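The passage that follows is intended for readers who have already worked through the single-chain material. We present the inputs for a multi-component assembly, then the predicted structure in tokenized form, and finally a short commentary. You are encouraged to pause after the input and sketch how you expect the pieces to fit together before reading on.
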Amino acid sequence: MLGFLVLVICLTAVSSNSLEARVEQLTELSYRSPVIKLDEDKYRSFIRTMPRNYSMVVMFTALAPNRQCKICKEAHSEFITLAKSHRYSRSFDNRVFFSVVDYDGGASIFQRLKLTSAPVVLHFPASGKRKAEDKFDIERRGISAEAVAKWVKERSEVVIEVIRPPNYTNAILLGVFLFAVSGTLLIKGNSLDFLYKWKYWAITAMFIMFAMTSGQMWLHIRGAPFAHVDRASGRTSFIHGSSNMMFVAESYIVAVVNGAIAFGFILMADAPKDPNNPNSKYMAYGGLALVVFFFSVLLAVFRLKHRSYPYSLLF
Amino acid sequence: MAKTLLERMGIATLSQAKKETLVQMTILSVACILSFSVRLFSVLRFESVIHEFDPYFNYRTTKQLVENGYYEFHNWFDDRAWYPLGRIIGGTIYPGLMVTAAAVYNVFNFFNVTINIRNVCVFLAPMFSSFTVIVVYLLTKEVKSVGAGLVAASMIAIVPGYISRSVAGSYDNEGIAIFCMLLTYYTWIKASKTGSICWSLSCALAYFYMVSSWGGYVFLINLIPLHVLTLMITGRFSHRIYVAYCIMYSVGTILSMQIPFVGFAPVETSEHMAALGVFGLCQIYAFVTYLQANMSTTNFNVLFRTVVTIALAAAGLTFGVATFLGKIAPWTGRFYSLLDPSYAKNNIPIIASVSEHQPTTWASFYFDLQLLVFMFPVGLYYCFRELTDANIFVILYSITSIYFAGVMVRLMLVLAPIMCIMSGIGISTTLAIYMKNIESETPAAPSSKSGKKKASDYPIKSEIATVIVTVVSIFLTTFVFHCTWVTSEAYSSPSIVLAARGHDGNRIIFDDFREAYNWLKFNTPENAKVMSWWDYGYQLTAMANRTIIVDNNTWNNTHISRVGQAMASPEDHSYTIMKELDVDYVLVIFGGMSGYSSDDINKFLWMIRIGGSTPEGEHIKESDYYSSTGEYKVDKDASKAMHNSLMYKMCYYRFGEIMTEQGKPTGYDRVRNQEIGNKDFELDVVEEAFTSEHWIVRIYKVKDLSNRGTV
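Having made your guess, compare it with the prediction:
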């Protein structure tokens, strides 16, 4: 009886000891790097060994360059941001740990969990079995650190406020730009006439103009495919049939058409400028042809988007 | 015959200059009348009614102003909205619009023209668009020439991008704000050209009017400093600009701070810092110029370098400390969403849910501006070719506004005037060149400008000129057709009264909204609280005069979220929320019967998203409301959460008994083209109180707590 008691005590001591040891080890590891890299052994000892009083959030991913997984890198950096926010927050405790399993070096873990794609984020709860919700729904929720944090909060009740490191890219770009400007000022000295040439400014302004009127900003914000290929018929359509959607190809077409009409007008108006130019007549006619032709094109393209639009010019 | 008529009218005897003035005045007045009348489509088709949502709030406040005077209006605490919080109206709105309407009303009534305040509100926007025509003419005249001014004025009269916000009945801030903005620009250009204190003060006053009427004044107070800065960099800064800007900025800022809603923002928030910075820069620039004139070059250089270094360091330090101490307000959400286009989409669901904040496709640029889209760069080209101070201003205006219009479709409104000005310049330049060539055949009296170079300027024969002038005229004609078509098709429905074509081609009017609001007004107790999605809040308070929970002034996200939760939760949970908010009636908009597509079921996803965005709404998860295949549906495949949500039940209550289309089963939703999945159910916590003729508005009464505990 006594022996049994001793044995029980010993067992408890051993298991709690090892749990404590593991937590300590994990804490230490996460001090070293906020996201713990798991290999086969660590995976077994930290996740598969059962009495646990901590949650594990594990990202399964494939980071090796030869895997060519672009989204994995993005997701990974977001994941690191999240782990860092947790690690350096005041409320850092050992209720939840972040770790990552790379396919190269952990393929057997992938097989065991029957994972066929990457990246996948799984939550291993402190107690109980994994449920369906313990798999992070990347497709619906996105990969941003905030989305993952919200999900972690739902699953483990650990609140993590995502703190993004200040983005230095803009500052560096600004620095380079300022350096370039001041460099030009130093080298060129007083001959800054090129800055006062109106043509350069006019070209820049028009570039902005055509970019905007052809909907580049819409594409930048919403994102759109270049064109649409219809699987059934194999036909490619460059112009979206709805007036509040568009394709990348479409915006280029419109920018060119608008540009051609504007150029035609300028040609027309500038033709009589130089009285000695024998070609001025052809300039005027050329400009006129450009304007009429491309305006008709524009109307035709617009009719594709607005079926009920009643006007057309040449065709 | 014509000659005799002219002689009879005494026109033939006028001098050339007077004839020109007469023609200009005629064109301008015709443009003004046209701009007024083209905006009356909706009044003629329906009746003199106020449109949409926000105008109803403006109308209600204007009525308050007219009936109770300015101080009552200024101190107004509205207990009919945002129950139980209420809303301070006087300090949270731009009062310019209401004051203007009240002034017009009072002037008319003073002369015993007894016009109703509602009609003043309906026709205010068309009236101000006529004024805009005149201001655009004046502005373009200052920038380029009289001819360009007339073309631009005629264009602004009918351009759809501006009409969209200023048709009769759209009684909103933008309706007068565009006039104020252009007036400020005109006076600014006058001031910077003349350097006179009088024009600078007019500019400050115009700016004050602008600030009092629209939050978009921030654009203006950044554009003018940008102009000054550009002039400084290009070496065009002069005493005229100095006088104009200093007076405009100091007087304008002090005046703008008199608007309670603006308050101390002009000296605290970062949107206004550019103006302050440029103001400081002006002083420094002037001082440096003064020193330069009174010192030797070497001494000056030494002094200049030292001061610049110290100043830069000090400025950086101050900025850092002020930001750190929180003295400088962070970038406000709306402004930031302009600079970083994806900011709003990612961070604020309410901003993302409003379609006015969407970016602009090329199709809507073309739809709203037609040939201006490509005449704009032409005008820009000519502005660049003859750079003047005023030209630089319009160039800056055009580039900044086209950027903003690209980011937010609503800001098309700011872009439209400059598009007209630029296109006016482009078209008028082209026409002016070729018109002369047509004239040159007949030995008519040369106009004052072209007389000198006449002989050498006309190498192109008049046939070509005739062809080109004809083509340009055809283009302008298509512009007129396009604008009229767009106005008639897209911008002339009041959205409170709907119209559709029946099978036999007859027009069917859906007047369900007013029917339902009037039902509320006459059949519910005076103090009843009505819950609806925020879109209908302003209309409810203005037309039904009942207390509402949330409205279109989306200032309290959690309150809106609470309403979203009530709509998206199952009945028993909703009931606790509705009791907590003390709701008596619930109003939903339902289009399944009539085919009205912007109904609450289509907005329901946003209610779920916004409802689930606060801690109280944790039980609401967007994914629960999709079918198993991840689609948003209302038929059999829809999820349980969807079928059991209060919104679904209130919209489809007894809808399953109805045959909506021939050859389709009962309960066929004509908007989503699905047969509803949950047909036979009873409502436990609410009871149907009223359903409008075409089922667009359905009102439910929230039952009292049962006096015996339910089992």
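Commentary: The longest strand of chain B covers residues 686-691. Chain B touches chain A through 61 residues (CB under 8 Å). How closely did your sketch match?
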